[in-house]
Amino acid sequence: MPRRKAAVIAAPRDTSSDEVALRALYHKDPLRILPNALWKTVARLQSLECRFIDDAGSVTGVELREPGKLLIYGTRTQDPLKAASVKLDGVPTVYIHNDFVAPLAPWFDRKEAFFRLVHTGSELPLRATVPGYTIRQVDTTTELPLVATILHACYDTSTPGTNEIAMWTKRPVFAPRAWLWIIDRKEKRPIALGIAETDRLTGEGSLEWIQVLPAFRSLGLGTMLVQELVYRLEQKVAFTTVVGQMKNPCEPEHLFRRCGFAGRDVWWVLHR
Ligand SMILES: CC(C)(COP(=O)(O)OP(=O)(O)OC[C@H]1O[C@@H](n2cnc3c(N)ncnc32)[C@H](O)[C@@H]1OP(=O)(O)O)[C@@H](O)C(=O)NCCC(=O)NCCS
Known about the structure:
This protein has 272 residues and is of the alpha+beta class. It folds into two domains: 16-115, Aminopeptidase; 133-237, Gcn5-related N-acetyltransferase (GNAT) (Aminopeptidase, 3-Layer(aba) Sandwich). It contains seven helices and eleven strands. The chain has helices spanning 16-28, 30-33, 38-42, 144-154, 162-168, 221-233, 252-258; strands at 49-55, 58-66, 70-75, 93-97, 110-119, 133-137, 174-184, 189-199, 204-212, 239-245, 262-271. The longest helix has 13 residues, at 16-28. The chain starts with 15 loop residues before the first helix and ends with a strand. The mean pLDDT is 93. The chain binds coenzyme A. Coenzyme A (COA) binds at residues 154, 210-212, 217-223, 244, 248-252, 254-255, 258.
């Protein structure tokens, strides 16, 4: 009888020292080190190669690579010459801070810029209310199809379906108190939705999905939602971050700054 080939299963790599170093670096300057909340990168460390950047004896940055797929380059230094050392090796997707994008940009045909802001809670936001509208927590046991419907109605691009959304409720950062509807009191139905996450280990909250149905925009409801989320998060975390596309006709950056978010960091996603 022919022998069956034994399946080769790679033993999981020990990523604990990379995680410790990344956490220390991230805490010093979250907005310059990663283009997203820390937990998202920690969750995929197994598939990432980490190279920490040493500058005169102290760790100032990190290069994260998923071979053949992606490169993330984050550093606290502001010297654009440092980016010259980044080797692209045909990598199709690069996440890089605005300060370093110039020498790399010519190699890529699609480029998208993202603002990355932080709310440090030094001044807790006012909690705006808009007459006729009220906030209620999403019932994540029964209302996920409605969450999918509202997301679909708020964007021109494709949005996650119920099954994908259900996965979000299984992650350690799931924070049921930060899944909020704004309800139209007259019509008794949700017309806006906000979803945020809390990473207790890092002390970081992150706003993930903020949207108001098109017919209800510019009434102050986006502000009401963001202020309520930040208020709820900041009882649990040290800081809250948000990322959003700069080229968005709804100008969400303005909304977040209006609600106390600050920062000047811009990240680029470059695609070939
Ligand atoms: C972004 C969004 C949530 C804003 O909701 P909203 O209820 O219209 O926001 P508000 O009425 O509270 O307005 C907040 C501020 O943004 C301004 N604003 C709202 N819509 C705007 C627009 N299209 N262009 C420019 N400014 C706008 C308002 O004037 C207000 O600023 P001001 O108080 O200084 O005048 C909403 O447009 C939306 O759902 N967009 C689609 C989803 C999306 O892009 N989400 C953001 C992902 S990062």
